[in-house]
Amino acid sequence: MSDLSNVTAASTIDSRGSACPGPLLEAKKGIGKVKVSEVLEIYSNDEGTRIDLKAWANKVGHEYMGYMEADGYDKHYITRKK
Question: Which candidate in 9, 10, 20, 68 is catalytic?
Answer without folding.
Answer: 20
